[in-house]
Design brief:
Distance between the termini: 62 Å
Order of helices and strands: HHHHH
Largest sheet: none
Radius of gyration: 20 Å
Structural class: mainly alpha
Number of helices: 5
Length: 102
């Protein structure tokens, strides 16, 4: 594109460097799901899936917060608090193993 390229410091951009319209991404995603005969989910649901899997994999909440771009960790913890209770038992078992040498 030479001089016609717009440098906007974007990860994903159109061929000329301009931002991609969010609606376009969602429409393409919907089309790909349909072509692959997969259940419909919103493109944004991928973000939630990533965060949930990260928590389940034991990724530290601060890292999840940074990856999601939340300004405060409380936003992350409030949004994904449903994932954390299931992890409480595992955390208790890990600490008990350290204390009791199990």
């Amino acid at each position: 594109m030479g001089d016609a390229y717009e440098e906007n410091d974007l990860i994903f951009a159109r061929e000329d460097g301009a931002p991609i319209e969010p609606r376009y991404v969602s429409e393409r995603f919907d089309l790909l799901l349909k072509e692959a005969k997969l259940a419909h989910i919103r493109f944004h649901d991928l973000r939630h899936t990533h965060a949930t899997l990260a928590f389940q994999a034991g990724v530290h909440p601060k890292v999840v917060q940074e990856r999601l771009g939340h300004s405060d960790i409380s936003i992350t913890l409030q949004t994904y608090s449903h994932v954390l209770p299931g992890m409480q038992e595992e955390a208790a078992e890990q600490v008990a193993a350290l204390v009791f040498g199990a």
